[in-house]
Amino acid sequence: MSIAVNPPPSVRSFRSPTAGTPRVTMVLRPTVSTTAAAVPILTKLQHECATPLPLLRNIAADMAADMRAGLSVDGGGELKMILSYVDSLPTGHERGLFYALDLGGTNFRVLRTQLGGRDERVIATEFEQVSIPQDLMSGTSEELFDFIASALARFVKKEGGKFVLPNGRSRETGFTFSFPVNQTSIDSGILIKWTKGFSVSGTPGKDIVACLNEAMGRQGLDMRVSALVNDTVATLAGARYWDGDVMVAVILGTGTNACYVESVDAIPKLQGHKSSSRKTIINTEWGAFSNGLPLTEYDKEMDAESINPGEQLFEKTISGMYLGEIVRRVLVRMAETGSLFGNYVPKKLQTPFALGTPNISSMQQDTSEDLEAVGSILYEATGVDSNLDARKMVVEVCDTIAKRGGRLAGAGIVGILQKMEEDSKGVVFGKRMVVAMDGALYEHYPQYKKYLKNVVAELLGPELSSHVVIEHSKDGSGIGAALLAATNSIYEH
Question: Given 140, 340, 400, 461, which residue has the most CB atoms within 10 angstroms?
């Protein structure tokens, strides 16, 4: 996420690209399907994935310590603690017409909103989603940005009705860009590299805002980028517009990230940057955290075969891109050594990422006596024929991985809150504190969500946790980017 460096939480699907070459060997067995031989594998998995409170307290403390290290100096810890240069958050007084452009994958979204100030707030909102042709993902910088700018220009031409640009103003847009960027100001950032299937030439090392501004100029579009943000920061801004107590935002989708409002006095590496509010948003890039995580052999194997071995271990244990793949690897072991699914291991089950996180979430929602939905999902996704005992075992595996992920994510949130509390007595635990959550994993996996919320309450205790509100902020990043364009407008409200 970027100004994030990894798989984008802005992607709202769990589907993940397959990686590596699937094994195709069928392991022939003379036995019928049984769960007895697979029980020790499940028992060991549950033991290795256990997240008792002492372990989670250590993880929260280590998260807070690593945040401090990253704020002290670039590269001081695993967490990058990236400066967002967002020093002013929406107040509700913003007025006028503002746009947002969200580019984070093979589709991008354009949005406009008419803001009416404190009394009317959001008067109207419209958006469109545009697919990027495959050839442009490996073309030139000018070709890609010209395509984006032309789509934005067509969208602007449909402006009308409740959408009115005040006289004497140019249009302004927020730009949500979920690729690795070295941000240099609120409206500039140097692209480090393309990810997620993009290999556009001529852009790395350049200011991507300048690339977009130039393309808009070539389209004759009178519009300027007034805020460059990542999707997590935009989510915080979008939620803060409606609730002034929002101080943290977390995305849990295909990927994951977290950001929060920090005092500039607590950022030793911040030099020469002046903030009138004395506050700024820090993009933690918490997916890189790894200290003390309870990892299994399946996690280690998956990590070793990934495109970034040894990196993003927190993300690989808590985000939607990986949970289904971890479950699949466990089931392969159970099938190979425990004859869980009968006398052979289906080829599809051996295919990396054949089982997605939506699959394991759906299986956990099956409450029927025969777990018919579990059987159907297993067959369709992995080619597995299963009996009731095997299906029950599969659901146990899904729950084990989801429980570990949700509880680790909750510990990460507590680590952020504890760091904020230690630096600003009474700011966090002395009053209402809202954590805005977005992402399909959090939204659509109820067991995961329950585990996350429960562990926050367990770690903080009943008194402190009563002040902490975890609130879903669906698709807040789109309007959040437009609101940040308004907050950083060159015009007075």
Answer: 340
Place of tokens 């913003």: 94
Catalytic (active site) residue 419: no
Alpha helices per DSSP H over 121-244? 141-157, 208-218, 231-242
Residue 172 has what DSSP assignment? E
Of 44, 193, 196, 474, which residue is the catalytic one? 196
3-state secondary structure 293-351: CCCCHHHHHHHHCCCCCCCCHHHHHHCHHHHHHHHHHHHHHHHHHHCCCCCCCCCHHHC
CB 234 within 8 Å of CB 251: no
Torsion of CA 144, 150, 152, 157, to 10 degrees: 180
Q: What's at 295, amino acid-wise?
A: L
User: 66, 207, 231, 438: which one is catalytic?
Assistant: 231
Hey, how many other C-beta atoms are within 10 angstroms of the C-beta on 175? 24
**CA neighbor of 227 nearest in space, from 481, 24, 428:** 481
Largest CA distance in the chain: 81
Helix (H, G, I), strand (E, B) or coil at 134: helix
The answer to whether 231 is a known catalytic residue is yes
Residue 46: predicted pLDDT: 98
Q: Could you count the other beta carbons within 10 Å of the beta carbon of residue 385? A: 12
Residue with tokens 């909102």: 125
Burial annotation 87-104 (CB, 10 A radius, 16+ → b, else e): bbbbebebbbbbbbbbbb
pLDDT tens digit string along 412-438?
999 999 999 988 776 677 789 999 999
Type of residue at 2: S
State the pLDDT at residue 126.
94
Q: Are 469 and 434 in contact (CB under 8 A)?
A: yes
User: ∠ at Cα 198 (257, 182), nearest 5°?
Assistant: 50
Q: Is the pTM of this model over 0.70?
A: yes
